[in-house]
Specification:
Layout (H helix, E strand, L loop, with lengths): L3 H4 L2 H6 L10 E5 L3 H12 L4 E6 L6 H7 L2 E4 L2 H4 L8 E4 L6 H10 L4 E5 L6 H10 L4 E5 L6 H13 L4 E5 L14 H5 L1 H17 L2 E9 L10 E8 L4 E7 L7 E5 L3 E5 L6 E4 L6 E2 L13 H9 L12 H15 L6
Parallel strand pairs: 1-2, 1-4, 2-3, 4-5, 5-6, 7-10
Antiparallel strand pairs: 7-11, 8-9, 9-10, 11-12, 12-13, 13-14
Helix pairs in contact: 7-12, 10-12
Length: 340
């Protein structure tokens, strides 16, 4: 179990973030789309008043900024960063293919605390290179499912129960909901990294990164040549056996199931937690302590971590190096041949 769980009760932290005082913090958001608006909503819940949004054209976010009197700088991050002072937190929530370029520009202005929207990059080499060059800065990748209260409640229960004995998960994609006009082709070519890695990373957060991994890809889609069915198994670095199954041509949803000696636990949907005692067949819902139920789950939680000065929270969100390792795992799971 990660060391930070011994030092701090993460669940207790998340249950009280509505009472924390971040009102003196300043935040810059780069991006004007859906996630930028979600960050704005969460920052307002955390009582942050000093917020600046930097967007290209700002059409989507303009109305929200106007309604709540939030400063909006148009013309893109190259221009906008010149107009903002050093801030307590910079959030990069621009399109995926621009994220690392935006990070390079942010770093020129000596910002020290940076949250990069997941997965940061499609290419593990970009993430690892940026991580090595900026090791002294606090740069984290916004895998918001790493801050789900359900995940940390499960970690707490498992610790009390002894240890995880095995794990299985699925990352079926709802193809009819994918907007193929939104992003460049490479985002869909590597959809496993762009999207499915969100739940895969959550599973490996629970059991540790894979030490052995057997991965099979089968079939293909017109837009995803490496496969449409993905099955595999392995052993994690914590010596926990795991298996996974995803059929992008069928139904289902993202799910994680964890087994211990006394219970099976499942995250289905990932925001909720259920348990089933050994020898029983009935699943019981577990109550979670959450704040801000009207905000996208995990977003306010990850922002509270980035706005806090408590070093005990530093390992909750992935570093650039950890995100690079997740990308490499996804390459094997999905059979990607990426040379960049």
């Amino acid at each position: 179990m990660p060391n930070y769980l011994i030092k701090m009760d993460i669940n207790n932290w998340f249950s009280k973030i509505d009472s924390l005082n971040f009102s003196n913090r300043s935040v810059v958001i780069i991006g004007g789309g859906f996630m930028a608006i979600e960050y704005l909503r969460a920052l307002q819940k955390l009582k942050i008043r000093n917020i600046t949004v930097i967007a290209n054209k700002g059409h989507q976010i303009q109305g929200y900024c106007d309604a709540y009197k939030i400063k909006l700088l148009k013309g893109g991050y190259m221009k906008g960063l010149q107009q903002v002072p050093k801030s307590n937190l910079v959030i990069i929530a621009c399109p995926l293919t621009l994220t690392m370029k935006a990070l390079d520009e942010v770093l020129k202005y000596e910002h020290q605390n940076i949250l990069v929207e997941k997965p940061g990059s499609l290419y593990h080499t970009e993430l690892s290179s940026a991580g090595r060059k900026n090791a002294k800065k606090r740069i984290r990748v916004a895998y918001n499912r790493s801050t789900y209260p359900s995940l940390h409640k499960l970690k707490k229960l498992v610790k009390k129960d002894g240890k995880i004995t095995s794990c299985r998960f699925t990352f079926t994609e709802w193809l009819d909901r994918i907007d193929f006009k939104k992003d460049p082709k490479e985002v869909y070519d590597y959809w496993g990294i762009s999207n499915s890695l969100h739940v895969i990373s959550m599973a490996f957060d629970l059991i540790g990164m894979p030490e052995k991994l057997n991965a099979i890809q089968h079939g293909q889609l017109k837009w995803h040549k490496s496969g449409k069915i993905f099955v595999g198994s392995g052993i994690s670095e914590q010596n926990i056996p795991f298996s996974y199954h995803a059929d992008w041509g069928s139904g289902g949803r993202w799910a994680i199931e964890i087994m211990t000696k006394n219970y099976s636990y499942r995250l289905v949907p990932l925001e909720q937690l259920e348990m089933c005692p050994t020898g029983k067949t009935t699943w019981q819902s577990i109550k979670l302590d959450t704040c801000f139920d009207d905000v996208k789950q995990g977003v306010a939680e990850e922002l509270s971590i980035m706005l806090s000065n408590d070093k005990k929270l530093d390992t909750v969100l992935p570093s650039l190096e950890k995100a690079s390792k997740l990308n490499k795992i996804a390459m094997k799971i999905f059979g990607y041949k990426i040379n960049k």
